[in-house]
Amino acid sequence: MDKWGMDRWGWDEHAVWGLVRIFAPLSLLAIGGAPSILAEMEHQTVDVYGWLTQRDFVDLFAISRAAPGPGTLIVTLIGWKAAGLAGAVAASVAFYLPTSLIIYGVASIWRRYRSAPWREPVEHGLAPIAIGLIFAGAYAVLQSMTSGVLAFGTTAVAVALLLWKPINPIILLSGAALTYGTIYALA
């Protein structure tokens, strides 16, 4: 190890193992996808390990949402930011491998018991858990934004509009950008 904690390959071994310690267990809690674990992901990477700032986390979240591919791309981006290429690979493998193996096993059991009476209650029981975790993740992202009340208000208006009438997201984003641009231009 050199004085910066890097080995001869140029990666921080402690950060790589830290990423594995964070993302392997989080992958098992990701009921409903990455949004359900965003709050804990943000807490671990910003508050506990200090690999990211609040702003870095929001930026990586925005990139992961704007980029094509899975919403869990944020895991790879956090790994990259924390420990370079080795971190990106370690975080991705730690996040995808455990759940892939479990889902493979659960899917074969689920198929075997297609007509079992317990299947429907299990599905109905997992839905509120997933929704609650997704709301917690959304709250964590909104809380880390510097806009405060304005961000919450914009989110509430966007949700209300989308529930009322299906609107093209580009129109919604353009309207929000125009509103924010006008507010900041006048300030």
What key phrases describe this protein's structure?
187 residues; mainly alpha; 0% strand
Describe the structure.
The protein is an all-alpha fold. The protein has one domain. It starts with 12 loop residues before the first helix and ends with a helix. Helices cover 75% and strands 0% of the residues.
Tell me the total number of β-strands.
Answer: 0
Give the class from helix and strand content and strand pairing. Answer: mainly alpha
Helicity, as a percent range = over 70%
Distance between the termini: 50 Å
Q: Number of domains in the coordinates?
A: 1
List the helices and strands in order.
HHHHHHH
Number of helices: 7
Radius of gyration: 20 Å
The biggest beta sheet reads: none
Detail the poorly predicted runs.
Answer: 1-5
Mean pLDDT rating: 83
Shape: flat
Beta content comes to under 5%
Helix-strand layout with pairing:
Layout: H1 13-29, H2 38-48, H3 54-66, H4 73-112, H5 119-144, H6 149-164, H7 169-186
Helix pairs in contact: 1-4, 2-5, 3-4
Entry summary:
The chain is mostly helical and 187 residues long.
